[in-house]
Amino acid sequence: MTEQALDTNSPDEATAKPEQKETLGSFLWFVAKLVIAVLIFRSFIFSPFTIPSESMLPNLRNGDYLVAAKWPYGYSKLSLPGEVPLWEGRILADLPERGDVAIFKHPVTGTDYVKRVIGLPGDTVAVRNGVVILNGEPLPKEAAGYADIPMSANTSCRRDGGVVVDGTTCRYRQFRETLPSGKSYMTVDFGPVGPRLLTDGMGGIATDSRGVPIRVDPDDIDPIVIPSGQLFVMGDNRDNSLDSRFPAVPDGGVGLVDADLLVGRASRVLWSTDGSAQWLLPWTWFTAARWDRIGSDI
Protein backbone atom coordinates (compact mmCIF):
# COMPACT_ATOMS: atom_id res chain seq x y z
CA MET A 1 0.00 0.00 0.00
CA THR A 2 1.40 3.32 -0.95
CA GLU A 3 0.84 6.44 1.09
CA GLN A 4 -1.41 8.96 -0.67
CA ALA A 5 0.36 12.19 -1.40
CA LEU A 6 -1.10 15.36 0.13
CA ASP A 7 -2.95 17.40 -2.46
CA THR A 8 -1.90 20.98 -1.76
CA ASN A 9 -4.32 22.28 -4.32
CA SER A 10 -7.53 20.63 -3.07
CA PRO A 11 -10.82 22.14 -4.27
CA ASP A 12 -11.81 23.10 -0.71
CA GLU A 13 -8.68 25.14 -0.15
CA ALA A 14 -8.77 26.60 -3.61
CA THR A 15 -12.26 27.98 -3.04
CA ALA A 16 -11.68 29.12 0.58
CA LYS A 17 -12.32 32.82 1.17
CA PRO A 18 -9.23 34.91 1.77
CA GLU A 19 -8.71 36.04 5.36
CA GLN A 20 -10.35 39.41 5.94
CA LYS A 21 -8.08 42.08 7.33
CA GLU A 22 -9.32 44.82 9.66
CA THR A 23 -9.80 48.11 7.88
CA LEU A 24 -10.01 51.61 9.27
CA GLY A 25 -13.70 51.62 8.46
CA SER A 26 -14.40 48.42 10.42
CA PHE A 27 -12.43 49.73 13.39
CA LEU A 28 -14.34 53.02 13.40
CA TRP A 29 -17.64 51.12 13.22
CA PHE A 30 -16.59 49.05 16.24
CA VAL A 31 -15.74 52.25 18.15
CA ALA A 32 -19.09 53.79 17.15
CA LYS A 33 -20.99 50.74 18.43
CA LEU A 34 -19.02 50.84 21.67
CA VAL A 35 -19.83 54.54 22.16
CA ILE A 36 -23.52 53.90 21.44
CA ALA A 37 -23.59 51.05 23.97
CA VAL A 38 -21.96 53.25 26.63
CA LEU A 39 -24.39 56.11 25.95
CA ILE A 40 -27.37 53.78 26.23
CA PHE A 41 -26.02 52.30 29.47
CA ARG A 42 -25.35 55.73 31.01
CA SER A 43 -28.63 57.21 29.83
CA PHE A 44 -31.04 54.45 30.77
CA ILE A 45 -29.42 52.05 33.24
CA PHE A 46 -26.61 53.35 35.48
CA SER A 47 -24.46 56.46 35.54
CA PRO A 48 -21.59 57.61 37.79
CA PHE A 49 -21.72 60.70 40.00
CA THR A 50 -19.31 62.26 42.49
CA ILE A 51 -19.83 63.60 46.02
CA PRO A 52 -18.10 67.00 46.33
CA SER A 53 -19.24 67.98 49.84
CA GLU A 54 -19.87 66.70 53.36
CA SER A 55 -23.63 67.36 53.37
CA MET A 56 -24.46 63.63 53.42
CA LEU A 57 -22.18 62.52 56.26
CA PRO A 58 -21.97 59.99 57.81
CA ASN A 59 -23.38 57.91 54.94
CA LEU A 60 -21.59 59.54 52.00
CA ARG A 61 -18.23 61.27 52.02
CA ASN A 62 -16.48 63.84 49.92
CA GLY A 63 -14.54 61.79 47.36
CA ASP A 64 -17.13 59.05 46.95
CA TYR A 65 -17.97 58.10 43.38
CA LEU A 66 -21.50 56.75 43.15
CA VAL A 67 -23.37 54.70 40.63
CA ALA A 68 -26.97 55.82 40.27
CA ALA A 69 -29.88 53.85 38.85
CA LYS A 70 -31.54 55.85 36.08
CA TRP A 71 -34.84 53.96 35.67
CA PRO A 72 -36.61 54.31 39.08
CA TYR A 73 -37.91 57.86 38.49
CA GLY A 74 -38.37 57.76 34.72
CA TYR A 75 -36.45 59.45 31.93
CA SER A 76 -36.19 63.03 30.74
CA LYS A 77 -33.64 65.08 28.85
CA LEU A 78 -31.71 65.21 32.13
CA SER A 79 -31.08 61.49 31.72
CA LEU A 80 -29.18 62.03 28.48
CA PRO A 81 -25.55 63.13 28.06
CA GLY A 82 -25.57 66.81 27.22
CA GLU A 83 -29.27 66.96 28.20
CA VAL A 84 -30.31 66.58 24.57
CA PRO A 85 -34.05 67.44 24.38
CA LEU A 86 -35.20 64.36 22.45
CA TRP A 87 -38.65 64.45 24.14
CA GLU A 88 -40.71 66.64 26.45
CA GLY A 89 -41.24 65.91 30.14
CA ARG A 90 -40.53 62.55 31.78
CA ILE A 91 -41.50 59.18 30.38
CA LEU A 92 -42.21 56.25 32.72
CA ALA A 93 -42.28 58.88 35.48
CA ASP A 94 -42.46 57.76 39.10
CA LEU A 95 -41.88 59.45 42.44
CA PRO A 96 -39.13 58.43 44.87
CA GLU A 97 -39.91 56.64 48.09
CA ARG A 98 -39.31 58.46 51.35
CA GLY A 99 -35.75 57.76 52.40
CA ASP A 100 -34.36 57.42 48.86
CA VAL A 101 -31.03 59.13 48.27
CA ALA A 102 -31.87 61.00 45.09
CA ILE A 103 -29.68 62.80 42.57
CA PHE A 104 -31.29 65.84 40.99
CA LYS A 105 -30.44 69.11 39.29
CA HIS A 106 -30.26 72.30 41.34
CA PRO A 107 -33.36 74.35 40.44
CA VAL A 108 -31.28 77.45 39.63
CA THR A 109 -27.83 76.35 38.47
CA GLY A 110 -28.54 72.87 37.09
CA THR A 111 -25.67 71.41 39.13
CA ASP A 112 -25.97 67.79 40.30
CA TYR A 113 -27.07 67.58 43.95
CA VAL A 114 -27.62 64.55 46.16
CA LYS A 115 -29.99 64.58 49.15
CA ARG A 116 -32.37 62.26 50.97
CA VAL A 117 -36.07 62.47 50.12
CA ILE A 118 -38.11 63.20 53.26
CA GLY A 119 -41.43 64.62 52.02
CA LEU A 120 -43.60 63.64 49.05
CA PRO A 121 -46.45 65.59 47.41
CA GLY A 122 -49.27 66.12 49.92
CA ASP A 123 -47.01 65.64 52.96
CA THR A 124 -46.59 68.32 55.61
CA VAL A 125 -43.00 68.73 56.80
CA ALA A 126 -41.70 70.81 59.70
CA VAL A 127 -38.61 70.81 61.94
CA ARG A 128 -38.70 71.48 65.68
CA ASN A 129 -35.53 71.53 67.77
CA GLY A 130 -33.77 69.50 65.10
CA VAL A 131 -36.49 66.82 64.95
CA VAL A 132 -38.30 66.31 61.65
CA ILE A 133 -42.09 66.42 61.93
CA LEU A 134 -43.76 64.49 59.09
CA ASN A 135 -47.52 64.83 58.76
CA GLY A 136 -47.79 65.94 62.37
CA GLU A 137 -45.71 63.09 63.79
CA PRO A 138 -42.08 63.48 64.87
CA LEU A 139 -39.70 61.04 63.22
CA PRO A 140 -38.02 58.88 65.87
CA LYS A 141 -34.50 60.20 66.45
CA GLU A 142 -32.36 57.96 68.64
CA ALA A 143 -28.80 58.64 69.79
CA ALA A 144 -26.49 56.16 68.04
CA GLY A 145 -23.06 56.93 69.45
CA TYR A 146 -20.49 58.62 67.26
CA ALA A 147 -19.46 58.68 63.63
CA ASP A 148 -15.67 58.58 63.35
CA ILE A 149 -14.68 60.04 59.99
CA PRO A 150 -10.98 59.80 58.99
CA MET A 151 -9.64 63.25 58.14
CA SER A 152 -7.86 63.61 54.82
CA ALA A 153 -7.08 66.00 51.99
CA ASN A 154 -10.77 66.24 51.08
CA THR A 155 -12.39 65.68 54.49
CA SER A 156 -11.95 68.28 57.21
CA CYS A 157 -13.48 68.53 60.68
CA ARG A 158 -16.15 71.07 61.52
CA ARG A 159 -14.95 72.46 64.83
CA ASP A 160 -18.47 73.70 65.66
CA GLY A 161 -19.79 70.15 65.59
CA GLY A 162 -16.92 67.67 65.51
CA VAL A 163 -14.06 66.73 67.82
CA VAL A 164 -10.63 65.79 66.49
CA VAL A 165 -9.44 62.47 67.92
CA ASP A 166 -5.74 61.49 67.77
CA GLY A 167 -5.18 64.21 65.16
CA THR A 168 -6.50 61.95 62.38
CA THR A 169 -10.21 61.39 63.00
CA CYS A 170 -13.21 63.70 63.26
CA ARG A 171 -15.87 62.49 65.69
CA TYR A 172 -19.48 63.61 65.24
CA ARG A 173 -22.57 62.77 67.24
CA GLN A 174 -24.83 60.58 65.15
CA PHE A 175 -28.50 59.67 65.40
CA ARG A 176 -30.73 57.05 63.83
CA GLU A 177 -33.79 58.55 62.16
CA THR A 178 -36.69 56.26 61.23
CA LEU A 179 -39.41 56.91 58.67
CA PRO A 180 -43.02 55.67 58.98
CA SER A 181 -42.18 52.88 56.52
CA GLY A 182 -39.61 51.54 58.99
CA LYS A 183 -36.65 52.59 56.86
CA SER A 184 -33.89 54.12 58.98
CA TYR A 185 -30.52 55.78 58.40
CA MET A 186 -27.86 57.64 60.32
CA THR A 187 -27.73 61.42 60.55
CA VAL A 188 -25.20 63.84 62.01
CA ASP A 189 -26.43 66.66 64.27
CA PHE A 190 -24.21 69.34 65.78
CA GLY A 191 -26.93 70.49 68.17
CA PRO A 192 -28.58 73.95 68.14
CA VAL A 193 -26.83 76.17 65.60
CA GLY A 194 -29.18 79.15 65.55
CA PRO A 195 -30.50 81.21 62.64
CA ARG A 196 -28.38 81.75 59.53
CA LEU A 197 -28.36 84.75 57.21
CA LEU A 198 -29.51 83.89 53.72
CA THR A 199 -27.53 84.90 50.67
CA ASP A 200 -29.20 86.35 47.59
CA GLY A 201 -27.23 84.27 45.10
CA MET A 202 -25.03 87.22 44.12
CA GLY A 203 -22.74 87.26 47.12
CA GLY A 204 -24.99 89.56 49.16
CA ILE A 205 -27.45 89.08 51.99
CA ALA A 206 -31.07 88.37 51.12
CA THR A 207 -33.60 90.83 52.57
CA ASP A 208 -37.38 90.96 52.88
CA SER A 209 -39.67 93.68 51.51
CA ARG A 210 -38.67 95.96 54.40
CA GLY A 211 -34.97 95.50 53.74
CA VAL A 212 -34.48 93.33 56.81
CA PRO A 213 -31.95 90.50 56.40
CA ILE A 214 -33.64 87.11 56.15
CA ARG A 215 -32.58 84.45 58.63
CA VAL A 216 -33.42 80.75 58.63
CA ASP A 217 -32.95 78.43 61.58
CA PRO A 218 -32.51 74.92 60.10
CA ASP A 219 -33.48 73.38 63.46
CA ASP A 220 -36.89 75.13 63.45
CA ILE A 221 -38.87 75.24 60.21
CA ASP A 222 -42.57 76.05 60.12
CA PRO A 223 -44.87 73.43 58.54
CA ILE A 224 -44.71 73.27 54.74
CA VAL A 225 -47.32 71.45 52.66
CA ILE A 226 -45.55 69.84 49.71
CA PRO A 227 -47.34 70.73 46.45
CA SER A 228 -48.05 68.24 43.69
CA GLY A 229 -44.97 67.27 41.71
CA GLN A 230 -42.48 68.53 44.32
CA LEU A 231 -40.25 66.99 46.98
CA PHE A 232 -38.78 68.01 50.33
CA VAL A 233 -35.16 66.84 50.60
CA MET A 234 -32.57 67.04 53.37
CA GLY A 235 -28.91 66.23 53.80
CA ASP A 236 -28.01 63.59 56.40
CA ASN A 237 -25.49 66.06 57.85
CA ARG A 238 -28.30 68.19 59.19
CA ASP A 239 -26.29 71.24 60.24
CA ASN A 240 -24.06 71.30 57.17
CA SER A 241 -26.54 70.94 54.32
CA LEU A 242 -28.25 73.56 52.17
CA ASP A 243 -31.43 71.73 51.25
CA SER A 244 -35.21 72.23 51.16
CA ARG A 245 -35.08 74.14 54.45
CA PHE A 246 -33.46 76.98 52.51
CA PRO A 247 -34.80 78.82 49.45
CA ALA A 248 -33.28 77.99 46.09
CA VAL A 249 -30.41 80.34 45.23
CA PRO A 250 -27.21 79.76 43.24
CA ASP A 251 -24.70 77.74 45.27
CA GLY A 252 -27.17 77.65 48.14
CA GLY A 253 -30.39 76.00 49.19
CA VAL A 254 -32.56 74.04 46.80
CA GLY A 255 -36.04 74.84 48.11
CA LEU A 256 -38.76 72.37 47.19
CA VAL A 257 -37.41 70.24 44.35
CA ASP A 258 -39.51 69.69 41.24
CA ALA A 259 -39.77 65.97 40.46
CA ASP A 260 -38.89 66.76 36.84
CA LEU A 261 -35.38 67.62 38.06
CA LEU A 262 -34.74 64.06 39.24
CA VAL A 263 -31.85 62.26 37.55
CA GLY A 264 -31.52 58.96 39.39
CA ARG A 265 -31.40 57.04 42.66
CA ALA A 266 -28.00 56.62 44.32
CA SER A 267 -27.35 52.89 44.60
CA ARG A 268 -23.77 52.02 45.51
CA VAL A 269 -20.32 53.50 46.12
CA LEU A 270 -18.31 52.59 43.05
CA TRP A 271 -15.01 54.15 44.16
CA SER A 272 -13.80 56.37 46.99
CA THR A 273 -10.66 58.45 47.44
CA ASP A 274 -9.34 60.53 50.31
CA GLY A 275 -8.12 63.22 47.92
CA SER A 276 -4.39 62.58 48.25
CA ALA A 277 -3.90 60.96 44.83
CA GLN A 278 -1.79 62.69 42.16
CA TRP A 279 -2.33 61.96 38.49
CA LEU A 280 1.39 61.85 37.72
CA LEU A 281 2.08 59.38 40.54
CA PRO A 282 0.04 56.27 39.66
CA TRP A 283 0.80 54.42 42.90
CA THR A 284 -1.01 57.15 44.85
CA TRP A 285 -4.24 56.17 43.06
CA PHE A 286 -4.17 53.03 45.20
CA THR A 287 -2.84 54.48 48.45
CA ALA A 288 -5.54 57.17 48.34
CA ALA A 289 -8.37 54.68 47.85
CA ARG A 290 -10.79 54.10 50.71
CA TRP A 291 -10.99 50.37 50.08
CA ASP A 292 -13.49 49.76 52.88
CA ARG A 293 -16.04 52.03 51.17
CA ILE A 294 -15.83 50.58 47.66
CA GLY A 295 -18.98 48.60 46.90
CA SER A 296 -20.87 50.00 49.91
CA ASP A 297 -24.64 50.02 49.57
CA ILE A 298 -26.46 53.35 49.94
Structure description:
This protein has 298 residues and is mainly beta. The strands form 4 sheets. A 7-stranded antiparallel beta sheet has the order 1-2-17-3-4-15-16. The longest helix is centred in the N-terminal third of the chain and has 21 residues.
Give Rg in angstroms: 26 Å
CA distance, first residue to last residue: 78 Å
In what range is the share of β-strand residues?
Answer: 25-35%
Strands, count: 17
Q: Low-confidence segments, ≥5 residues, pLDDT <50?
A: 1-10
Average pLDDT figure: 86
- Major β-sheet annotation: 7 strands, antiparallel
| Helix-residue proportion | under 10%
Overall structural class, as computed from helix and strand content, comes to mainly beta
Number of helices: 3
Which geometry do the CA atoms define? Answer: globular
Strand ordering within the main sheet: 1-2-17-3-4-15-16
What are the secondary-structure elements, in order, as H or E? Answer: HHEEEEEEEEEEEEEEEEEH
